[in-house]
Amino acid sequence: MSINDTIKSDITENDVVLFMKGTPQFPMCGFSGQVVQILDYLGVPYKGVNVLENDEIRQGIKEFSNWPTIPQLYVKGEFVGGCDIVREMFQSGELASHLTEQGLAVKQAAKA
Amino acid sequence: MAMQARDIEKLIVEALPDAKVEIRDLAGDGDHYAATVVSSAFKGKTRVQQHQMVYAALKGNMGGVLHALALTTSSPEN
Fold it and tell me: Domain A3-101 belongs to what topology?
C-alpha cells in the first residue's frame, strides 16, 4: 500500500483523524497539544496518528493536504485545517457545528 | 535557523500585492511569529485555501526555516 493509500484509508475509516506530533496522551508539540485539548473538550472520539513514528506519513501528509505543517485535522475524510484554523473555528463555535452537521456528537459547545 | 519579519512580509506581498501584512515576533527569537494578512485575493476562498495561498507565497519556508507562523487571514470586507 502506498503512503497515499494509507492516509486515505485512515481518513475514510475514521470519522475524525488528527495527524499530530506525539499521541493524544502525550503530545510532543504545543500546536498538536492545543488541538488535542480542543477535541477532548468537545468530547469527540478521534484517531491520533503520530507522525513522529513514521517519516513517510510525516512527509506524505504534507503533500496529501498541500499543507506544510503538523497538526492536521480531518473530519469525514475532509481536511479541516491546522492549529490556527481549528482554534479559530472552536472559539467561534464553528467547529462544534461542523462536527454536528457531519453527524458527530459533541459534548460541549465552544467557550470564548 | 530563523527568518526576519520583513522577509516574511516581502514574500507575502510579492505574491499578494494588495495584502496588508502585520507580523509580530512572539518570542523575540526570530522563529515564532504571528501574522495577520488582509487581501482581496482571499475573497470567496475558504480559510484552508487562504492559508494555502500564504504558505505558497512563503515558497517552502513554512515548516522549514520558519518553524511557527500563527496565521489569521481575511479579505478587506469582513
Answer: Glutaredoxin (3.40.30)
